[in-house]
Amino acid sequence: MVHWHGMHVPEEDDGHPKDVIANGETYVYEFEIMNRAGTYWFHPHPHGRTGPQVYNGLAGLFVVTDDEEQRLKLPSGEYDVPVVLQDRQFDNNNQLVYLNRGRMDRMNGFLGNRILINGNPDMKLSLKSGCAYRLRFLNGSNSRFYKLAWEDGTPLVIIGKDGSLLDSPKSKPYVMLGVAERIDVWLDLKNRPQGSQMIMKSLSFSPGMMGMMGGMMGRGRNNLPLGSTYEILKINIDKTGSNDFELPQRLAEFNKLDPATAVNRNNPRTFRFFMRRMQWTINGRTWEMTGFTDEETVKLNTTEVWEIVNSGGRMMGERGWRRDRGEMERDRGMMGGGMQMPHPFHIHHLQFNILERDVSGVDSRIWNSVKDGFIDEGWQDTVLLMPGMSVKLIMRFEDFKGLFLYHCHNLEHEDMGMMRNFKIE
Ligand code: C2O
Ligand code: CU
Ligand code: CU
């Protein structure tokens, strides 16, 4: 089946794992596009198989425009360029390799050792001097995430994130692009001479992998460890042209949802991402095909605040973990230490606003290596949680009742069951 990542669609069109399409069967998706202009994407979602299916090629962009965006006269046509980032690994016969380290790849998430851009291994784009571009980045990797920056220190100019344009362009030294996240980047080549080159890199950062397997993460045979420095993309400015696209100082109108309108404003629902009995969980639970609890039941036409906590960094006795103490003590005993990892949180069916990002539980070495790379404006559907981080999100449930998903978008974690239903009723 197909899931339309970020789109606001009815349950039967959302690509729920219970709605798999068997071999030889046909299924017709038919829905109205209700989303704002933004960069969305699609991929299958069969439980336990999303990782391999995306890895083998089933993923693509789904671009939405609207009148508000059209009025801004942003770069279009050949000047609106998709950049889908994925990492892959090939064997000696040039065949894809997946989960070759078995359980460790599942626990940590699979990392390839080569970067593909739009499915191509040469990592090159050829663009024109004298022109402005809109580059739409999607991190379509299974578990790898990036600290994107131009090699020559040119700031990244961000005009969009996930499901919206920003209200105004934001200039960043680098951007952390978690799995499944999208950013729209403005690239001005007006004063870049023909024959020159721009290189985008992923800069080094501390991913904060700790615990039984953390130390081995990305080492060994992988020559592209998570958090190391490597090239992502070469832009060869090998032609000349001209266009008159100008970067607008005001982009999209945008009202954040108002926390005063949330039904649980002072008592947010809390979802903790942590490991229990050698299994990644959300609040200690794992996937059930149609199961959901009261904690996962919301009312149509309400606005809520959800707090998402990556408990990893808090297992050693900091605040916020007391409720899970018994479990965690047991796990620590079993594992000889806490297990912590970054988790990209994603929720189906809606776009949220980030109200607050609490980093008080994040190790300062981790935080200092990523802190200038987060974009908390705009409408988003995926948010990267470094170990110990928690975020408060505000979201509204409207138009459709039904059963939808929220999960970790590290695809190996998702396939292992770090995914749950929520019910809108
Ligand atoms: Cu890309 Cu459940 O989603
Ligand atoms: Cu989704
Ligand atoms: Cu995860």
Q: Can you give me a brief rundown of this structure?
A:
The chain has six helices and 24 strands. With 425 residues, the chain is mainly β.
Q: How would you sum up this structure, described in words?
A:
With 425 residues, this protein is mainly β. It is 10% helix and 35% strand. It contains six helices and 24 strands. The chain has helices spanning 50-55, 67-71, 103-108, 325-335, 364-370, 411-416, and strands at 3-5, 38-43, 60-64, 80-88, 114-117, 124-129, 132-139, 146-150, 156-161, 164-172, 175-177, 182-188, 196-202, 230-240, 269-276, 279-282, 297-298, 302-310, 343-347, 353-358, 382-385, 390-397, 402-408, 419-424. A six-stranded mixed beta sheet has the order 5-4-7-12-9-10, with no helix packed on it. The chain has a five-stranded mixed beta sheet with strand order 6-14-13-8-11, with no helix packed on it. It has a five-stranded mixed beta sheet with strand order 16-15-18-22-20, covered by helices on one side. Strand 15 (269-276) and strand 16 (279-282) form a beta hairpin. The radius of gyration is 21 Å and the shape is globular. One copper (II) ion is lined by residues 280, 343, 408, 410, 413, 418.
